[in-house]
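Example protein as discussed:

>
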Amino acid sequence: MLRRNPYLICAAYLLLVTCAELLTILNARAGIASHAVIMFALLLHSALKSDTDKNLSRFLMALVLAPLIRILSLAMPLVQFNWLSWFMLISVPIFIAIFTCTWLQELRSKDVGLFVPQLRNAPIEAGVILIAIPFGILEYLILKPSPMLELRPMTFIASALVFIICTGFLEEFAFRGLLQYNAIRVMSKWSGIVFVATVFGVLHVGNLALLDCLLAFSVGFVYSIVREKTGSIYGISISHGLINIILFLVAPLYF
């Protein structure tokens, strides 16, 4: 039954990722090992399904990005780098993985949301960017991170660009671009949206705040709907990056 039902397969991997995330709270090394096992299981499962169910095979390949992101974020030693260098270094292998997956699946730019939305969708794009302000403040009130740097103009601009490209665009490309495209083809539209938003929320378990997981799920759900409505990830990428800018750069200095 598990082999024939894509919903059960998705639920099983979601459960495994959730367990791995919970394990990272107790032991980071065990969490990394668990995510590594899940990643290789996904790759093997994808290879086995490549001839019999291409949609499922491609979905499993895209889902590899979830444990990969966590492995890199947990394994990269922060003490040897500042925060911005850390974000940039982690983003490089993830970008390579995303583009490789997109190339192997022969996807078009439009398939993964890499195109300018139509003018009629401009109010939606503007709205999703503006809601980043209350979301960013709310996440700061939940997590209360320390200030990352002094708010000097050039440093702030450089840091903001890093957050937009290496967190906002990167994660939206991975989740709402590649993974959501494949999830909807394996499940229904709404099931795929809920699945991607849930995975996105689960990957915030390491922040040790249930409210942050719920907030991440809510934000991810809104972004997934906007992605389906406009077909583009550009607006939600800016919004995602802006949330992190507020969370790490602005709010710690003024709240």
Summary: The chain has a mean pLDDT of 91. The chain has one domain: 6-254. Residues 153-186 form the longest helix (34 residues).
